[in-house]
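Reopening: structure tokens for the 5'-deoxyadenosine complex, inputs below.
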Amino acid sequence: MNVYDAERMTDLLAPIGYEAVEAPDDADLVILNTCHIREKAAEKVYSDLGRLRQLKAARPEDGASMVLAVAGCVAQAEGEEILRRAPYVDMVFGPQAYHRLPEMVARVHREQGAVLDTEFPASSKFDYLPKPEAQGRFSAFLTVQEGCDKFCTFCVVPYTRGAETSRPVADVKADASNLAAGGVREITLLGQNVNAYHGRAGRFGTQTLGKLIAGLADIEGLDRIRYTTSYPAEIDSDLINAHRDIPQLMPYLHLPVQSGSDRILHAMNRRHGAGDYKRLVERLRRARPDLALSSDFIVGFPGESDADFQATLDLVDEVGFVGAYSFKYSPRPGTPAAALLGQVPEDVKTERLHVLQAKLNAGQSAFNKGTIGTKMSVLLEGPGRHPGQMIGRSPYMQAVHVQASEEYLGKIVELEIEAAHPNSLSGRLLEGTPDHQGLNATMEATA
Ligand code: 5AD
Ligand code: SF4
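Re-run output (same inputs, fresh job):
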């Protein structure tokens, strides 16, 4: 979502004369769009600011100045603390304020003194944002939901992104149509808790994510739909049916489980046990037998015993994931878990992460190797590293290299997978692989 937010900030600044540059050295405005989810990410902000301070200090020599801004969740959480620790920062604003960016830039130029904006506005920022444009891309993000009301005891998101809100169905459809008309073939619907989506749908009340996806599938040219990130306890039958009925919905789902231990899941306030998660996966796989799953895991949550950790390893074995993000528990100030007794020593967390990641990596490699010899539909998104090569994504988000000419750019082609490398696959273009058979190819490859 930070990538998407940064794109929107770039769009907002274009009308007042700013364009993106490759490096901060000569920039007139530098925005650090920050993440507060784990301590490491938050601390990085201050070390980056230290480096930018030197660039900023060097600027008056060439007669120009540099406006330095901190945006995103660290800005939301720390607010004035940033201005205290780094008084050379000109603007600090949270994720709910970035639509006011042009106004803030003008204020910094007009007045001397920093601008701080970490309010949660009453009206939606989306009403004030320019429409996202394709800009030559074939795959794009689209935010449909923001915020989270789940209050997992380890997590800062409900405090930094605020309460759950959903964009109206008509607005999402308008943005998706605009992107598709500009050449986008694949859209990833974004939300901190995307399946809590309940967007206003005119006089019909609200619509669920499953129904929204069904509506988007009718848009001409939009051949692939994904969504992320989901909360297991809120996957409803509309969404499961969407996986069954809508071929454009890719057979790949990121579904964070966090732990395999009921005791730990309860302490995390997750509202699902390990059994609930496994039953949900069964239902999803009945609906879409070729569905592949990825997940998020936390090791070393306060009170996690060897037996709890073993339960996580067992769940990984039982479910089988094709990708995952796994983290050591990081106490976040102000969250309930940070104050719990039984904090796990760092060396134990490190050891558990190591063991878990070895298992998850083995699962991912086995899945990738298993694709060798199969047919897959791949959306070709750009040139590869070598001449004559293109790179694209499989339905399962794997990067795939292929020898193909540029006429295939932006097309969904059918490939036979020939090799699996650590971070990518490579394949051979199959004869007669015209565009628009992409969807059929997906179904065939995965049947
Ligand atoms: N410590 C470690 N990992 C965390 N996550 C969220 N909060 C924390 C924390 N305090 C992880 C969760 C979540 C992902 C985005 O980040 O696994 O799903
Ligand atoms: Fe954080 Fe996700 Fe839990 Fe919400 S559901 S509190 S975003 S981990």
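The chain is about 35% helix and 20% strand. The two ends are 32 Å apart (CA to CA). Marking as resolved unless the reporter disagrees.
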